Amino acid sequence: MKLGYDFFASDVLILAPELLGKILVRKFPDGNTIRLRIIETEAYRGTDDLACHASKGKTPRTEPMFMEAGTIYIYLIYGMYWMLNIVCSEIDNPQAVLIRGAGKYNGPGKLTKALRIDKTFNKTSIFENEFLWIEDDDFSGEYFTSPRVGIDYAGEPWISMPWNFKLKNFKIDF
DNA sequence: TCTCCGATTCACT
DNA sequence: GTGAATCGGAGAA
Question: What is residue A83's predicted lDDT score, i.e. its pLDDT?
Fold first, then answer.
């Protein structure tokens, strides 16, 4: 079943692990559809979290994070890769989950490249979208946490927060 | 305007 | 392990 607003309207530290095992569905304009189980997520939490883009406040770039839960936040990194994030919590509480891996794609840049996700999805809704949504098939599995990747610039304590979540055992097929 | 640099990936040494 | 590719946002000038 397709996940709706209520699922995303919770704190990012609850939502990020909850998203593990859910199914990311991408429907291409030609009708082809891909389903991938989410295997890695990462939490970015509010204006205090110096690793979170929203710690700089509301700017043209970070505005989606201040929008309704379920809003998709897309940004370009290193001039070549689009990052896919799902906004959560309530309006004006900027939190988002970065989808770092799904199915056989084990990196956020590889994932969006394979799914052909770009900034045209920015600010659209993950539960009112014709081409991208998330489903629950009642799968659940154990997970483990790690510090977040690539945010050394944020300094402590943010570097050490165990806000990266990965499924322990999973099958790519389902 | 101009400069710096990033929530990455891949090819090389 | 090191460095290149590549570009727009944020902040300084």
Answer: 98
